[in-house]
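Entry for the shared binder. Reason: the reviewer on the internal report wants the predicted structure included alongside the sequence.
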Amino acid sequence: MPDEFMKISESLSTTQPFNVSDSPTLPTLQPKKNTVLISHGRPPWYSEDGHRISDAFVIGVAGGSGSGKTHVAREIIRKLGSVPTVTILSQDSFYKYLEPEEQALAHANKHDFDHPSALDLDLFSKCLADLKHCKQSNIPVYSFAQHQRLPEKKYLYGATIIIAEGIMALVDPALRDLYDLKVFVQCDSDLMLARRLRRDVKERGRDVNGILDQYLRYVKPSYDNFVRPTSKYADIIVPGSNNSVAIDLICTHIRQKFDERTNKFRPKIAIPHLHFTSLSGTSTLESVEDLDLTILPQTPQIQGILTILRDKTCPRQDFIFFSDRLSTILVEHAFQHLPYIPWTVTTPVGVDSTGKKLDAQYLCGVVIQRSGGALEKGFKRVINTVPLGSMLIQSDSKSAEPLLLQANLPLYVRLRHLAEDTYVFVLDAQIGTAAAAFMSIRVLLDHGIREDHIVFVTFLVARGGGVSILRQAFPLMKIVCAAVDETMQEGWLEGYKGEGNPEGVGRKVWLMKPGMGQIGDRYYL
Protein backbone atom coordinates (compact mmCIF):
# COMPACT_ATOMS: atom_id res chain seq x y z
CA MET A 1 0.00 0.00 0.00
CA PRO A 2 1.50 3.38 -0.99
CA ASP A 3 2.83 5.65 1.76
CA GLU A 4 0.60 8.43 0.43
CA PHE A 5 -2.44 6.29 1.14
CA MET A 6 -1.37 5.68 4.73
CA LYS A 7 -0.78 9.39 5.34
CA ILE A 8 -4.12 10.36 3.88
CA SER A 9 -5.89 7.63 5.86
CA GLU A 10 -4.64 9.17 9.08
CA SER A 11 -5.82 12.68 8.19
CA LEU A 12 -9.23 12.00 6.60
CA SER A 13 -12.27 11.36 8.74
CA THR A 14 -14.02 8.08 7.95
CA THR A 15 -17.45 9.62 8.38
CA GLN A 16 -19.90 7.98 5.97
CA PRO A 17 -22.01 9.99 3.57
CA PHE A 18 -25.28 8.64 4.90
CA ASN A 19 -26.79 8.02 8.31
CA VAL A 20 -24.45 10.43 10.12
CA SER A 21 -25.69 11.05 13.65
CA ASP A 22 -24.75 13.59 16.26
CA SER A 23 -22.20 12.17 18.64
CA PRO A 24 -21.48 13.49 22.16
CA THR A 25 -17.82 12.45 21.74
CA LEU A 26 -17.13 14.92 18.91
CA PRO A 27 -17.67 18.49 20.22
CA THR A 28 -13.95 19.36 20.18
CA LEU A 29 -13.65 18.24 16.57
CA GLN A 30 -16.74 19.77 15.07
CA PRO A 31 -19.81 21.25 16.76
CA LYS A 32 -22.97 19.22 16.43
CA LYS A 33 -24.59 21.92 14.34
CA ASN A 34 -21.98 21.79 11.61
CA THR A 35 -23.06 18.68 9.76
CA VAL A 36 -26.36 16.86 10.03
CA LEU A 37 -27.23 14.30 7.39
CA ILE A 38 -30.29 12.09 7.19
CA SER A 39 -31.36 9.85 4.36
CA HIS A 40 -34.45 8.10 3.10
CA GLY A 41 -32.57 7.13 -0.05
CA ARG A 42 -31.23 9.15 -2.96
CA PRO A 43 -33.37 8.69 -6.12
CA PRO A 44 -31.83 8.99 -9.61
CA TRP A 45 -30.40 12.40 -10.49
CA TYR A 46 -29.50 11.41 -14.06
CA SER A 47 -31.34 10.48 -17.25
CA GLU A 48 -31.21 7.28 -19.29
CA ASP A 49 -28.25 8.66 -21.23
CA GLY A 50 -26.25 8.65 -17.99
CA HIS A 51 -25.91 12.44 -17.74
CA ARG A 52 -26.75 14.43 -14.63
CA ILE A 53 -30.03 16.30 -15.14
CA SER A 54 -30.58 17.86 -11.71
CA ASP A 55 -28.44 19.49 -9.04
CA ALA A 56 -28.98 19.35 -5.33
CA PHE A 57 -31.41 21.99 -4.02
CA VAL A 58 -29.38 24.49 -1.97
CA ILE A 59 -30.77 26.79 0.72
CA GLY A 60 -28.70 29.59 2.25
CA VAL A 61 -29.63 30.53 5.81
CA ALA A 62 -28.05 33.70 7.26
CA GLY A 63 -28.61 35.75 10.40
CA GLY A 64 -26.83 37.09 13.44
CA SER A 65 -24.98 34.96 15.99
CA GLY A 66 -27.63 33.38 18.21
CA SER A 67 -30.50 34.31 15.90
CA GLY A 68 -31.64 30.70 15.54
CA LYS A 69 -30.18 29.76 12.15
CA THR A 70 -29.30 26.22 13.21
CA HIS A 71 -32.72 25.74 14.80
CA VAL A 72 -34.41 26.85 11.57
CA ALA A 73 -32.22 24.46 9.55
CA ARG A 74 -32.98 21.53 11.86
CA GLU A 75 -36.70 22.30 11.84
CA ILE A 76 -36.66 22.28 8.04
CA ILE A 77 -35.07 18.82 8.14
CA ARG A 78 -37.57 17.58 10.74
CA LYS A 79 -40.63 18.86 8.88
CA LEU A 80 -39.46 17.66 5.48
CA GLY A 81 -39.78 14.14 6.84
CA SER A 82 -39.53 11.66 3.97
CA VAL A 83 -37.68 13.90 1.52
CA PRO A 84 -34.40 12.10 0.76
CA THR A 85 -30.96 12.99 2.00
CA VAL A 86 -30.80 16.42 3.60
CA THR A 87 -27.57 17.90 4.96
CA ILE A 88 -26.66 21.02 6.92
CA LEU A 89 -23.33 22.57 5.97
CA SER A 90 -22.18 25.15 8.52
CA GLN A 91 -19.99 28.11 7.74
CA ASP A 92 -18.24 27.49 11.07
CA SER A 93 -16.27 24.67 9.42
CA PHE A 94 -14.50 27.19 7.20
CA TYR A 95 -12.65 29.43 9.65
CA LYS A 96 -9.14 29.98 8.39
CA TYR A 97 -6.11 28.25 9.87
CA LEU A 98 -4.59 30.39 12.64
CA GLU A 99 -0.90 30.99 13.17
CA PRO A 100 0.35 30.55 16.77
CA GLU A 101 0.20 34.30 17.44
CA GLU A 102 -3.38 34.50 16.15
CA GLN A 103 -4.34 31.43 18.14
CA ALA A 104 -3.02 33.05 21.34
CA LEU A 105 -5.14 36.13 20.64
CA ALA A 106 -8.16 33.91 20.02
CA HIS A 107 -7.78 32.28 23.45
CA ALA A 108 -7.68 35.79 24.94
CA ASN A 109 -10.90 36.71 23.06
CA LYS A 110 -8.95 39.27 21.00
CA HIS A 111 -9.22 37.71 17.55
CA ASP A 112 -12.06 38.87 15.31
CA PHE A 113 -13.95 35.75 14.17
CA ASP A 114 -16.92 37.83 13.02
CA HIS A 115 -15.27 39.63 10.14
CA PRO A 116 -15.63 38.14 6.63
CA SER A 117 -11.83 37.91 6.38
CA ALA A 118 -11.81 35.31 9.20
CA LEU A 119 -13.55 32.84 6.89
CA ASP A 120 -12.25 31.00 3.87
CA LEU A 121 -15.26 31.92 1.75
CA ASP A 122 -13.58 30.70 -1.44
CA LEU A 123 -13.23 27.21 0.01
CA PHE A 124 -16.80 27.38 1.36
CA SER A 125 -18.19 28.19 -2.10
CA LYS A 126 -16.01 25.51 -3.76
CA CYS A 127 -17.16 22.77 -1.38
CA LEU A 128 -20.77 23.88 -1.69
CA ALA A 129 -20.52 23.98 -5.50
CA ASP A 130 -19.16 20.42 -5.54
CA LEU A 131 -22.02 19.15 -3.37
CA LYS A 132 -24.59 21.07 -5.41
CA HIS A 133 -23.28 19.50 -8.63
CA CYS A 134 -23.51 15.98 -7.11
CA LYS A 135 -19.79 15.58 -6.48
CA GLN A 136 -18.06 14.56 -3.29
CA SER A 137 -16.44 17.09 -0.97
CA ASN A 138 -14.09 16.85 2.00
CA ILE A 139 -15.15 19.47 4.55
CA PRO A 140 -12.67 21.05 6.99
CA VAL A 141 -13.10 20.31 10.69
CA TYR A 142 -12.77 23.24 13.09
CA SER A 143 -12.26 23.00 16.86
CA PHE A 144 -13.76 25.86 18.88
CA ALA A 145 -11.99 24.58 21.99
CA GLN A 146 -8.58 24.85 20.26
CA HIS A 147 -9.49 27.81 18.02
CA GLN A 148 -7.97 25.93 15.12
CA ARG A 149 -8.75 24.07 11.92
CA LEU A 150 -7.78 20.43 12.44
CA PRO A 151 -6.04 18.03 10.01
CA GLU A 152 -9.15 15.82 9.85
CA LYS A 153 -11.74 16.30 7.13
CA LYS A 154 -15.33 15.17 6.90
CA TYR A 155 -16.31 13.42 3.66
CA LEU A 156 -19.73 14.28 2.26
CA TYR A 157 -21.56 13.06 -0.83
CA GLY A 158 -25.07 12.40 -2.01
CA ALA A 159 -27.19 15.22 -0.61
CA THR A 160 -30.42 15.98 -2.42
CA ILE A 161 -31.07 19.09 -0.33
CA ILE A 162 -28.26 21.17 1.22
CA ILE A 163 -28.79 23.84 3.87
CA ALA A 164 -25.77 26.16 4.10
CA GLU A 165 -25.98 28.25 7.27
CA GLY A 166 -23.79 30.91 8.83
CA ILE A 167 -23.64 34.60 9.72
CA MET A 168 -21.87 35.35 6.41
CA ALA A 169 -23.93 32.94 4.30
CA LEU A 170 -25.30 35.78 2.16
CA VAL A 171 -22.23 38.04 2.12
CA ASP A 172 -20.28 36.48 -0.74
CA PRO A 173 -21.77 36.84 -4.27
CA ALA A 174 -20.24 33.48 -5.28
CA LEU A 175 -22.18 31.79 -2.47
CA ARG A 176 -25.40 33.63 -3.28
CA ASP A 177 -25.20 32.39 -6.87
CA LEU A 178 -25.28 28.78 -5.61
CA TYR A 179 -28.48 29.12 -3.57
CA ASP A 180 -31.88 28.12 -4.91
CA LEU A 181 -33.52 29.74 -1.87
CA LYS A 182 -32.06 32.47 0.37
CA VAL A 183 -33.33 32.82 3.97
CA PHE A 184 -32.49 35.46 6.59
CA VAL A 185 -33.31 34.79 10.26
CA GLN A 186 -34.13 38.06 11.99
CA CYS A 187 -34.02 38.21 15.77
CA ASP A 188 -33.99 40.74 18.62
CA SER A 189 -30.44 41.69 19.69
CA ASP A 190 -31.08 40.96 23.38
CA LEU A 191 -32.33 37.49 22.59
CA MET A 192 -29.34 36.79 20.35
CA LEU A 193 -26.94 37.84 23.14
CA ALA A 194 -28.73 35.65 25.70
CA ARG A 195 -28.57 32.65 23.38
CA ARG A 196 -24.88 33.27 22.64
CA LEU A 197 -24.05 33.45 26.35
CA ARG A 198 -25.81 30.16 27.08
CA ARG A 199 -24.27 28.39 24.07
CA ASP A 200 -20.66 29.53 24.60
CA VAL A 201 -20.68 28.70 28.30
CA LYS A 202 -22.31 25.29 27.84
CA GLU A 203 -20.81 24.05 24.57
CA ARG A 204 -17.51 25.91 24.20
CA GLY A 205 -16.32 26.32 27.79
CA ARG A 206 -16.02 30.13 27.71
CA ASP A 207 -16.36 32.50 30.66
CA VAL A 208 -19.07 35.16 30.74
CA ASN A 209 -16.74 38.18 30.85
CA GLY A 210 -14.85 36.95 27.80
CA ILE A 211 -18.08 36.33 25.91
CA LEU A 212 -19.39 39.82 26.65
CA ASP A 213 -16.09 41.46 25.76
CA GLN A 214 -15.97 39.60 22.45
CA TYR A 215 -19.61 40.41 21.74
CA LEU A 216 -19.18 44.16 22.23
CA ARG A 217 -15.81 44.32 20.52
CA TYR A 218 -16.52 42.16 17.44
CA VAL A 219 -19.91 40.45 17.23
CA LYS A 220 -22.27 43.43 17.45
CA PRO A 221 -20.27 45.68 15.05
CA SER A 222 -20.00 42.82 12.56
CA TYR A 223 -23.74 42.23 12.68
CA ASP A 224 -24.45 45.91 12.05
CA ASN A 225 -21.83 46.31 9.29
CA PHE A 226 -21.87 42.98 7.45
CA VAL A 227 -24.66 40.61 8.49
CA ARG A 228 -27.84 42.66 8.79
CA PRO A 229 -27.32 44.40 5.41
CA THR A 230 -27.40 41.01 3.66
CA SER A 231 -31.07 40.59 4.55
CA LYS A 232 -31.82 42.51 1.34
CA TYR A 233 -30.68 39.47 -0.65
CA ALA A 234 -33.06 37.08 1.13
CA ASP A 235 -36.07 35.54 -0.60
CA ILE A 236 -37.77 35.14 2.77
CA ILE A 237 -37.27 36.68 6.24
CA VAL A 238 -37.89 34.24 9.08
CA PRO A 239 -38.37 35.42 12.69
CA GLY A 240 -35.88 34.06 15.22
CA SER A 241 -38.68 32.64 17.39
CA ASN A 242 -42.25 31.45 16.86
CA ASN A 243 -41.38 30.72 13.25
CA SER A 244 -43.26 27.48 12.55
CA VAL A 245 -45.50 29.07 9.89
CA ALA A 246 -42.52 30.42 7.94
CA ILE A 247 -40.76 27.05 8.16
CA ASP A 248 -43.88 25.27 6.89
CA LEU A 249 -43.94 27.61 3.87
CA ILE A 250 -40.27 26.89 3.16
CA CYS A 251 -40.83 23.12 3.38
CA THR A 252 -43.83 23.29 1.03
CA HIS A 253 -41.70 25.15 -1.50
CA ILE A 254 -38.86 22.61 -1.18
CA ARG A 255 -41.19 19.63 -1.70
CA GLN A 256 -42.63 21.24 -4.80
CA LYS A 257 -39.18 21.87 -6.28
CA PHE A 258 -38.04 18.38 -5.34
CA ASP A 259 -41.03 16.78 -7.08
CA GLU A 260 -40.25 18.78 -10.21
CA ARG A 261 -36.73 17.34 -10.28
CA THR A 262 -37.69 13.71 -9.75
CA ASN A 263 -36.63 11.48 -12.64
CA LYS A 264 -38.36 8.14 -13.13
CA PHE A 265 -37.24 5.80 -15.87
CA ARG A 266 -36.65 2.34 -14.40
CA PRO A 267 -39.86 0.83 -15.89
CA LYS A 268 -38.59 1.92 -19.30
CA ILE A 269 -35.05 0.56 -19.00
CA ALA A 270 -36.35 -2.75 -17.59
CA ILE A 271 -37.73 -3.70 -21.03
CA PRO A 272 -35.93 -1.18 -23.25
CA HIS A 273 -36.91 -2.48 -26.69
CA LEU A 274 -40.44 -1.23 -26.02
CA HIS A 275 -39.32 2.33 -25.30
CA PHE A 276 -35.89 3.11 -26.76
CA THR A 277 -34.07 2.99 -30.06
CA SER A 278 -31.34 0.38 -30.02
CA LEU A 279 -27.68 0.78 -30.92
CA SER A 280 -28.48 -0.48 -34.40
CA GLY A 281 -31.26 2.13 -34.84
CA THR A 282 -34.19 -0.29 -34.47
CA SER A 283 -36.52 -1.25 -31.63
CA THR A 284 -35.41 -4.88 -31.61
CA LEU A 285 -33.25 -6.51 -28.96
CA GLU A 286 -29.52 -5.99 -29.22
CA SER A 287 -27.35 -8.91 -30.27
CA VAL A 288 -24.77 -10.11 -27.79
CA GLU A 289 -22.03 -8.84 -30.11
CA ASP A 290 -23.53 -5.32 -30.12
CA LEU A 291 -23.46 -5.22 -26.33
CA ASP A 292 -19.65 -5.57 -26.27
CA LEU A 293 -19.59 -7.90 -23.27
CA THR A 294 -16.62 -9.92 -22.07
CA ILE A 295 -18.13 -13.37 -21.53
CA LEU A 296 -16.32 -16.28 -19.92
CA PRO A 297 -15.47 -19.02 -22.44
CA GLN A 298 -18.32 -21.51 -22.15
CA THR A 299 -16.19 -24.49 -21.19
CA PRO A 300 -17.82 -27.60 -19.71
CA GLN A 301 -16.57 -26.43 -16.29
CA ILE A 302 -18.36 -23.03 -16.55
CA GLN A 303 -21.51 -24.65 -17.92
CA GLY A 304 -21.48 -27.14 -15.06
CA ILE A 305 -21.09 -24.42 -12.41
CA LEU A 306 -23.91 -22.36 -13.95
CA THR A 307 -26.17 -25.43 -14.03
CA ILE A 308 -25.62 -26.01 -10.32
CA LEU A 309 -26.27 -22.35 -9.46
CA ARG A 310 -29.47 -22.19 -11.52
CA ASP A 311 -30.95 -25.27 -9.83
CA LYS A 312 -33.52 -24.13 -7.26
CA THR A 313 -32.95 -27.36 -5.27
CA CYS A 314 -29.23 -26.60 -4.90
CA PRO A 315 -28.30 -26.77 -1.19
CA ARG A 316 -27.18 -23.42 0.22
CA GLN A 317 -23.77 -24.86 1.12
CA ASP A 318 -23.18 -25.84 -2.52
CA PHE A 319 -24.58 -22.54 -3.80
CA ILE A 320 -22.06 -20.61 -1.70
CA PHE A 321 -19.15 -22.85 -2.72
CA PHE A 322 -19.82 -22.63 -6.46
CA SER A 323 -20.65 -18.90 -6.29
CA ASP A 324 -17.24 -18.29 -4.73
CA ARG A 325 -15.59 -20.49 -7.34
CA LEU A 326 -17.31 -18.74 -10.25
CA SER A 327 -16.58 -15.27 -8.86
CA THR A 328 -12.89 -16.15 -8.58
CA ILE A 329 -12.79 -17.17 -12.24
CA LEU A 330 -14.69 -14.02 -13.25
CA VAL A 331 -12.37 -11.64 -11.41
CA GLU A 332 -9.30 -13.38 -12.82
CA HIS A 333 -10.80 -13.03 -16.31
CA ALA A 334 -11.63 -9.37 -15.67
CA PHE A 335 -7.96 -8.56 -14.95
CA GLN A 336 -7.29 -8.58 -18.70
CA HIS A 337 -8.92 -5.12 -18.80
CA LEU A 338 -6.25 -3.59 -16.57
CA PRO A 339 -3.10 -2.02 -18.05
CA TYR A 340 0.19 -3.94 -18.04
CA ILE A 341 3.75 -2.97 -18.97
CA PRO A 342 6.77 -5.11 -19.85
CA TRP A 343 8.80 -6.05 -16.78
CA THR A 344 12.03 -7.96 -16.42
CA VAL A 345 12.85 -10.08 -13.38
CA THR A 346 15.73 -12.33 -12.42
CA THR A 347 14.83 -15.97 -11.82
CA PRO A 348 16.29 -18.06 -8.94
CA VAL A 349 18.86 -19.50 -11.36
CA GLY A 350 20.13 -16.03 -12.29
CA VAL A 351 18.45 -15.67 -15.69
CA ASP A 352 16.56 -12.54 -16.73
CA SER A 353 12.96 -13.17 -17.76
CA THR A 354 10.74 -10.51 -19.38
CA GLY A 355 7.04 -10.59 -18.58
CA LYS A 356 4.29 -8.20 -17.58
CA LYS A 357 3.63 -6.01 -14.56
CA LEU A 358 0.33 -4.42 -13.54
CA ASP A 359 0.43 -0.70 -14.36
CA ALA A 360 -2.57 0.49 -12.35
CA GLN A 361 -1.45 3.04 -9.76
CA TYR A 362 -4.56 2.56 -7.61
CA LEU A 363 -7.01 -0.34 -7.62
CA CYS A 364 -10.08 -1.00 -5.49
CA GLY A 365 -13.40 -2.83 -5.47
CA VAL A 366 -16.97 -1.72 -4.77
CA VAL A 367 -19.64 -4.27 -3.84
CA ILE A 368 -23.29 -3.56 -4.69
CA GLN A 369 -25.06 -4.86 -1.60
CA ARG A 370 -26.33 -7.29 -0.97
CA SER A 371 -26.29 -9.65 -3.95
CA GLY A 372 -22.88 -8.33 -5.00
CA GLY A 373 -21.50 -9.82 -1.80
CA ALA A 374 -21.63 -13.19 -3.55
CA LEU A 375 -18.59 -12.06 -5.57
CA GLU A 376 -16.66 -10.55 -2.67
CA LYS A 377 -14.84 -13.69 -1.59
CA GLY A 378 -13.73 -14.41 -5.15
CA PHE A 379 -12.41 -10.87 -5.50
CA LYS A 380 -10.38 -11.22 -2.28
CA ARG A 381 -8.99 -14.57 -3.41
CA VAL A 382 -7.60 -12.98 -6.56
CA ILE A 383 -6.30 -9.79 -4.95
CA ASN A 384 -6.64 -9.22 -1.21
CA THR A 385 -4.40 -6.19 -0.70
CA VAL A 386 -6.65 -3.47 -2.14
CA PRO A 387 -9.46 -1.48 -0.48
CA LEU A 388 -12.99 -2.82 -0.87
CA GLY A 389 -16.01 -0.55 -0.42
CA SER A 390 -19.73 -0.95 -0.89
CA MET A 391 -22.94 0.72 -2.03
CA LEU A 392 -26.41 -0.14 -0.78
CA ILE A 393 -28.92 0.38 -3.59
CA GLN A 394 -32.50 -0.83 -3.18
CA SER A 395 -35.76 -0.37 -5.03
CA ASP A 396 -38.37 2.01 -3.70
CA SER A 397 -41.50 0.04 -2.76
CA LYS A 398 -43.81 2.59 -4.42
CA SER A 399 -42.01 3.78 -7.55
CA ALA A 400 -39.65 0.81 -8.09
CA GLU A 401 -36.90 3.38 -8.73
CA PRO A 402 -33.42 2.64 -7.33
CA LEU A 403 -32.53 4.42 -4.09
CA LEU A 404 -28.95 5.01 -2.97
CA LEU A 405 -29.09 4.31 0.76
CA GLN A 406 -25.39 4.15 1.59
CA ALA A 407 -22.06 4.70 -0.14
CA ASN A 408 -19.10 3.40 1.87
CA LEU A 409 -16.42 4.02 -0.73
CA PRO A 410 -12.65 3.34 -0.62
CA LEU A 411 -10.34 6.28 0.01
CA TYR A 412 -9.00 6.11 -3.54
CA VAL A 413 -12.50 7.01 -4.74
CA ARG A 414 -13.29 9.61 -2.09
CA LEU A 415 -10.25 11.76 -2.85
CA ARG A 416 -10.62 13.31 -6.30
CA HIS A 417 -6.89 13.70 -7.02
CA LEU A 418 -6.51 9.93 -6.54
CA ALA A 419 -9.78 8.96 -8.21
CA GLU A 420 -8.67 9.96 -11.70
CA ASP A 421 -5.84 7.37 -11.56
CA THR A 422 -7.91 4.64 -9.90
CA TYR A 423 -9.34 1.48 -11.49
CA VAL A 424 -12.54 0.20 -9.88
CA PHE A 425 -14.03 -3.30 -10.01
CA VAL A 426 -17.80 -3.07 -9.42
CA LEU A 427 -19.23 -6.36 -8.15
CA ASP A 428 -22.91 -7.27 -8.54
CA ALA A 429 -24.64 -10.59 -9.05
CA GLN A 430 -26.54 -9.69 -12.21
CA ILE A 431 -27.48 -6.90 -14.60
CA GLY A 432 -31.23 -7.16 -15.17
CA THR A 433 -32.99 -3.82 -15.36
CA ALA A 434 -29.52 -2.26 -14.89
CA ALA A 435 -30.97 0.27 -12.42
CA ALA A 436 -28.38 -0.49 -9.71
CA ALA A 437 -25.59 -0.57 -12.30
CA PHE A 438 -26.66 2.84 -13.65
CA MET A 439 -26.60 4.38 -10.19
CA SER A 440 -23.32 2.80 -9.09
CA ILE A 441 -21.50 3.96 -12.23
CA ARG A 442 -22.94 7.47 -11.95
CA VAL A 443 -21.72 7.65 -8.34
CA LEU A 444 -18.20 6.67 -9.40
CA LEU A 445 -18.18 9.21 -12.23
CA ASP A 446 -19.34 11.90 -9.78
CA HIS A 447 -16.24 11.12 -7.72
CA GLY A 448 -13.90 11.58 -10.67
CA ILE A 449 -13.36 7.94 -11.66
CA ARG A 450 -12.78 7.69 -15.41
CA GLU A 451 -15.41 5.69 -17.28
CA ASP A 452 -12.77 3.54 -18.99
CA HIS A 453 -11.34 2.69 -15.55
CA ILE A 454 -14.56 0.93 -14.44
CA VAL A 455 -14.82 -2.87 -14.79
CA PHE A 456 -18.26 -4.28 -13.92
CA VAL A 457 -18.09 -7.95 -12.88
CA THR A 458 -21.31 -9.97 -12.71
CA PHE A 459 -22.64 -13.51 -12.96
CA LEU A 460 -25.47 -12.87 -15.42
CA VAL A 461 -26.59 -10.24 -17.91
CA ALA A 462 -30.11 -10.09 -19.36
CA ARG A 463 -29.90 -9.30 -23.07
CA GLY A 464 -33.52 -8.13 -23.05
CA GLY A 465 -33.03 -5.93 -19.97
CA GLY A 466 -31.44 -2.56 -19.38
CA VAL A 467 -27.92 -3.51 -20.42
CA SER A 468 -28.39 -2.04 -23.92
CA ILE A 469 -29.33 1.36 -22.42
CA LEU A 470 -26.45 1.03 -19.96
CA ARG A 471 -24.09 0.35 -22.86
CA GLN A 472 -25.30 3.41 -24.78
CA ALA A 473 -24.88 5.61 -21.70
CA PHE A 474 -21.44 4.29 -20.70
CA PRO A 475 -19.74 2.77 -23.76
CA LEU A 476 -16.20 2.93 -22.31
CA MET A 477 -16.78 0.81 -19.21
CA LYS A 478 -16.10 -2.93 -19.34
CA ILE A 479 -18.66 -5.59 -18.44
CA VAL A 480 -17.42 -9.09 -17.56
CA CYS A 481 -20.03 -11.83 -17.06
CA ALA A 482 -20.34 -15.62 -16.90
CA ALA A 483 -23.42 -15.91 -19.13
CA VAL A 484 -26.10 -13.96 -20.97
CA ASP A 485 -29.79 -14.74 -20.40
CA GLU A 486 -32.35 -13.81 -23.01
CA THR A 487 -35.29 -12.05 -21.43
CA MET A 488 -36.68 -9.88 -18.68
CA GLN A 489 -40.30 -10.41 -17.71
CA GLU A 490 -42.60 -8.70 -15.24
CA GLY A 491 -43.49 -10.90 -12.30
CA TRP A 492 -44.25 -10.93 -8.60
CA LEU A 493 -41.89 -11.30 -5.67
CA GLU A 494 -43.91 -13.41 -3.27
CA GLY A 495 -44.13 -12.69 0.42
CA TYR A 496 -43.56 -8.93 0.14
CA LYS A 497 -45.93 -6.85 2.24
CA GLY A 498 -46.23 -3.16 1.61
CA GLU A 499 -48.48 -0.33 0.61
CA GLY A 500 -51.31 -1.55 -1.61
CA ASN A 501 -50.37 -5.15 -0.85
CA PRO A 502 -51.34 -5.91 2.78
CA GLU A 503 -51.77 -9.64 2.16
CA GLY A 504 -48.24 -10.11 0.91
CA VAL A 505 -49.31 -11.85 -2.29
CA GLY A 506 -46.29 -10.42 -4.04
CA ARG A 507 -44.56 -7.30 -5.27
CA LYS A 508 -44.31 -6.56 -8.98
CA VAL A 509 -40.72 -6.91 -10.16
CA TRP A 510 -38.80 -7.58 -13.37
CA LEU A 511 -37.43 -11.13 -13.43
CA MET A 512 -34.47 -12.41 -15.43
CA LYS A 513 -35.17 -15.70 -17.20
CA PRO A 514 -33.92 -18.37 -16.81
CA GLY A 515 -31.83 -16.52 -14.19
CA MET A 516 -30.70 -17.67 -10.76
CA GLY A 517 -33.50 -16.24 -8.64
CA GLN A 518 -32.77 -13.87 -5.75
CA ILE A 519 -29.03 -14.47 -5.53
CA GLY A 520 -28.51 -12.41 -2.36
CA ASP A 521 -31.18 -14.38 -0.51
CA ARG A 522 -29.80 -17.70 -1.71
CA TYR A 523 -26.24 -16.77 -0.70
CA TYR A 524 -26.92 -15.23 2.72
CA LEU A 525 -30.16 -16.78 4.02
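Summary line for the report: The radius of gyration is 27 Å.
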